[in-house]
Amino acid sequence: MKQIALYLAGVLVMTFSACSRDHQVKQEVSSPIPVKIGKPLLKEQPETVSVSGTVVSPDAPSNLSFLVSGKVIQVGPREGDYVRKGQVLATIDPVDYQLALTAAKAQSDLARVAYLRAEDEHRRMKMLFDSKSLAPNDYQKYKSAYESAEQQYLQAVASEKRFEKHLSDATLRSPVDGFISRRSVEPGQMAGPEQPAFEIIKLDPIEVNVGVPETDVHLVRIGQKATITLPALPGESFEGTVRLINVSADSATRTFMTRISVPNPKHKLRIGMIAEVRISGDKIVKRLSVPIETVVRDPQGATTVLVYYPDQNRAHVRRVEVGSVFGRDIEIRRGLTGDESVILAGQERLREGDVVSVASAGDQEEKTQIAKKETSK
User: What value, to the nearest 5°, has the Cα angle with vertex 128 and ends 125 and 132?
Assistant: First the structure.
């Protein structure tokens, strides 16, 4: 009897447990998940090419070195500093070059005195020679002495100018306006013509270097406008112009190098930043788009949206191919026709085939109507 009682108790527990699960399932079925739905937007927009690239300088950096050797006694700007053309960057100890110039000037002064004396004597002897009062051989001696003095004077002047330049080269000046991107000398170091000292780059304008796929290169031409956004500067965008399109593709990536010139007066764009570029074409095309948060990824990593089926009151997963991003919307290239009702809110709680209830569709439907009105205009 005791065993029978235990058996009946177990059966009752299992029965109550099953009833509880059935009740829970029924409760879940009878409690649809509230969602918000809306139609995809249909817009007429210029055909665009979206590519990624890197901010680069339009000109090669100015790599500066001293033209003479010596010990560095003074260094001015550091990396990131803005310098003007002609601004002093660094100085080598000028004492040796000053002494050499002083000696060269003294030698030049002596040579000038000798040259003037020889010139005066040659002029007097030439007058005698022209009047037949001086023998040709004697005149030739004075002429040779004058020419030799003149040559020595010219060499002394050239030597003086050379040492003047050496003294000037002991001070390194910026040849352009720009920013110091690298400084390779410090006070106390030895510097010379073979040692880089500074690198200077320009930041206005800058260029964005992108690779346009060969399937899209026919849509791009010089002079087209482009919109540039950067992860490093969220919320900001910049306008640029296509300046150059390479005539040959990169053999590894099969893309055509394209450079986009961008004004940068506030120097916000910096060399090496990653940029997202949208090049606007001349052709107007119709595009379907949905809010970015509408698109989710399935376990396989594919992009999907949840579509509401009103006859079933259920949500079903639809794989889609996405394209360019426009503000807070994303283009749907394949997978939707535009007549579907997509889940705009609540999709994070949904799975394939879940029962749903429509909470509100007004906002997105209003956006759809506005988009249609803009399209009709």
Answer: 135
